[in-house]
């Protein structure tokens, strides 16, 4: 295990508001990591910074064994370097079937299958990608009629088809049934056996099932890190989550 992503002393302000404040964070390869924290803590902004959507004001973001500086790379270069991102809302091609969506993802430039693609059985490859996210029986179904949870899985499947080294997933459980949530945790745990996966999530039951190291983000910096039990026992984390603003040592 070695650090795949190393964020050091990163700050980012919007106008005068410091959304990310001297944030340091690193994730290994392979590793599954959860990021939790109240609304507005800077979780999505963190992903915007790593994927090159926005640039930090200060600090560095290094990636891979060559310690490439992501702050100097374009969004497209960062994606090609193996960083995949799942946004909160599913963005699949609704008019295309599950199989067609996955086939497009498999043929994308980043995919290790792209070169071999004409030589392998495209249908078999797409079915295998579908099986990773439990959609092997839905190959011919237009993505538009899938349930919300299934659309999320399809998008995760499309990202995994491109074999990212680092997968960033923003609030996948929102709007899912509890059965879908449980299935989603299994997929992410499996995916993280061979890559780094960083999951932002509010649902504590979901995070508990991920059974991984947790980073608590608050006001743009890492407030606590460790197992879920460890961070939940931290008085500073309790303050943030329960909104208890006064100390109780009187
Ligand atoms: P979280 O995902 O933890 O709920 P965000 O990262 O979305 O929080 O937002 C952190 C803070 O930064 C919020 O106060 C938000 O309004 C602000 N923010 C995020 N992106 C922008 C932007 N592009 N312009 C202005 N303010 C932003
Ligand atoms: Mg967010």
Tell me what you see in this structure.
- It comes from Jannaschia faecimaris.
- 33% of the residues lie in helices and 26% in strands.
- Helix 4 crosses helix 5 (148-161), helix 5 (148-161) packs parallel to helix 6 and helix 6 packs parallel to helix 7.
- The strands form two sheets. The protein has a six-stranded mixed beta sheet with strand order 6-7-8-3-9-10, sandwiched between helices. A four-stranded antiparallel beta sheet has the order 2-1-4-5, with helices on one face.
- Mean pLDDT is 92; it is low at 246-250.
- By secondary structure, the protein is an alpha/beta fold.
- The protein is globular and about 50 Å long.
- It has helices at residues 43-50, 75-80, 98-107, 122-132, 148-161, 178-191, 204-210, 228-232, 235-242, and strands spanning 2-14, 17-29, 31-36, 58-63, 68-69, 83-86, 166-170, 196-200, 213-218, 221-226.
- The termini are far apart.
- It folds into two domains: 1-82 and 166-250, P-loop containing nucleotide triphosphate hydrolases (Rossmann fold, 3-Layer(aba) Sandwich), CATH 3.40.50.300; 93-163, no CATH class.
- Magnesium ion is lined by residues 43-44.
| Associated small molecules | adenosine-5'-diphosphate, magnesium ion
| Ends distance | 45 Å
Q: What is the CATH C level class of the largest domain, in words? A: Alpha Beta
Report helical residue fraction. Answer: 25-40%
| The CATH superfamily title of the largest domain | P-loop containing nucleotide triphosphate hydrolases
Question: How many independent structural domains?
Answer: 2
Model regions low in confidence, pLDDT < 50 over at least 5 residues: 246-250
Helix-strand pattern? EEEHEEHEHHHEHEHEEHH
What is the topology, as strand order, of the major beta sheet?
A: 6-7-8-3-9-10
Q: From the coordinates shown, what is the CATH architecture of the largest domain?
A: 3-Layer(aba) Sandwich
The mean pLDDT is 92
The biggest beta sheet is recorded as: 6 strands, mixed
